[in-house]
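look at this record:
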Amino acid sequence: MLEFWYSERCSREIKLVSSIVVCGAIYFCSSIAQLAPLWVGFSLALGIFIHVLFTQFLKLAPSHPYRKTLRNGIYMFQLFALLSLAYVLPAQHKWALWLQCIGFHALGLFLVSIYSNRAKRHA
């Protein structure tokens, strides 16, 4: 997913629609159970951290010996972090809370990556 998101094939419209769908899913799940602000902040921070790691991955030369290891490490860290969040969330309506965590994680990644790739304005 990250390769597509950071590629030239992923247009601004796709990124906008993805962000709107994620916000809609978060809104729907929040009507069932509200996620605590601590977990919202933690999920957003994880998304931002994944963006930072992936931009470092993209800066590596394709022949760099650690490129594949870093990519696999990013995916493993992301999976471990989201599963850890699922473990510590309250038991009641856990699925709705976990979907919100995933949504805020994705939203953090989306917003930072869109902002960092925006067209520069000249005054």
Remarks:
- Residues 1 and 29 are 23 Å apart (CA to CA).
